[in-house]
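thought: fold this chain, then report.
action: predict
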Amino acid sequence: MKTLSIDIETYSSVDLAKCGVYKYTEAPDFEILLFGYSVDGSSVRTVDLACGETLPPEVIAALIDDRIIKWAFNAQFERICLSRWLRDHDAFDNTGYSIPEDTVGDYLDPASWRCTMIWSAYMGLPLSLEGVGAVLGLERQKLTEGKDLIKYFCQPCAPTKTNGGRTRNLPANAPDKWEAFKTYNIRDVDVEMSIQEKLRKFPVPDSVWDEYHLDQEINDRGVSLDMALVRAAIEMDTRSRSELTAAMKKLTALDNPNSVQQMKQWLSDNGLEVDSLGKKEVAEMIKTAPAELQKVLLLRQQLAKSSVKKYQAMEKAVCADGRARGMFQFYGANRTGRWAGRLIQMQNLPQNHLSDLEQARGLVRAGNFDAVELLYEDVPDTLSQLIRTAFVPKAGYKFIVSDFSAIEARVLAWFAGEAWRQEVFEKGDDIYCASASQMFKVPVEKHGINGHLRQKGKIAELALGYGGSVGALKAMGALEMGLQEGELQPLVTAWRNSNQNIVRFWWDIDRAAMNALKYRTEEYVGDIHFVYQSGMLFITLPSGRRLSYVKPKLGVNQFGGECITYEGVGSTKKWERLDTYGPKLVENIVQATSRDILCYAMRTLSHCFITMHIHDELVIEASPKVSLSVLCEQMGRTPPWASGLKLRADGYETMFYKKD
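observation:
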């Protein structure tokens, strides 16, 4: 036996979607119902564990044999569930795969596992088995009745008179459905193997599988949560909302002041017509509204804070040992290969700006509502700023947080050969000041000479690097920052004139991609390679990793010009035809390369206990003797494939996570 393709069906009273697979498998009633498998691509069989059948000894041996490759679609689910099942059946030694000081848990080593979902994502395909099958046009598709069968057999049911008051459906309760479920289980393995066969000529590089295994290790390790803080924050939020709602009712006499419709009508009745009660719109109205309306809008603003949802997500996801696991989806953004967040959604945590963060944290943790309200006034905002601080190192350890300085700006300058920018990075100067100086041809210093221009340099840097124009500046908040409408186009022109190599790079990339598609030729822009192959447009990055664009065609953009279109997941989260052009491809290339640099740093630091990574930042659980400066130096090392790129990593030590 060389490979084992697997699909399992399971039961647990824990909500998988809200709690994640790690918490799901901790439920006392967790069990594996069906085990579908194929050995070395042979015909699929299913083992009906729920009805007393047993796994063949050679299959059990294969699961714990690191020489045999295990395949599954979303393999993390199978690996974690089977780890629990093997422990329950005394077939797994319960020691995990790392050193005793690590917290990766008693899980099967991910090194011998491969994931068909990751392979699909690497090829720019959907992250669902059904979606991949449809896009690839497989002869054998996932059975559509599966969702109903999973709901029937894999989740608790509501007790009714009809079902005799039971809270769970067993095979004996619906034998015909159970037979259909077994067929469904077999079909899933068939579809997974069909995907492997279809993608065989486009293998995932070993380096990406190594990254996946490191990702699984980080997910297995998890991060400790201060549950005393989490529970106190939830309780405080409940009281705050109750008091804010009561105050709103008193001021407005509305039945439900949280209702957008009722609030719009009340504001209209009081002389303020509004189209939206969005965060930005309410913030703008507060500036000019009459005092009595301003008070209502301020209360509305506080009620709109969704901080409690993060704390509730923590409470749902935390495992028995106090750690949250499974928060990172490898290749979640398949146009760049970046991670996506799961469960607690680490990628969009609110920032903290409180100067006395530790004091505020202590008051909330102690449940001192009156003190928090007295000292900070806005309780929801305070709780929001404390979300990051719920992540803590284990006892006797500290967090070292290290991140890359202006990583995308550095990578873009390196690709485009924009020498003045590279000099700025090499000297360690402020890129926003330097950009403003280039644009306005005067010296600019932060808090010094022409310091007022730095903000214009900053907004231009953040908005214009990927072909953005006036609309991008507005979307980035240029008008809210005090810029005038008439300043925006000159700002765009000044930035582009100061970065002519970057502008040229946009259109070099556009031309190369277009030629590769039009003429089926191989094209290069520096170390970036473009090729059309078997209905795919591939862009090979300097790291050797490929970006994939599915079923590319020549099309017409909204301005009537020629562009490239391809199939992918759009802003509506649906599979559709999208269009792209040079600057947007540059954004993909730069962000993908920044991701590869982060992966290189993660592999360099894989001997450390990496617990989290957020955008371009690593959070490491370190013993007190670990040196911050040494760790930052290691993180800031340039990969061998990025000669000439100027990197820098900065960091800090903390006893709870925060934005420094």
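thought: worth noting. The longest helix spans residues 227-252.
final: tokens above.
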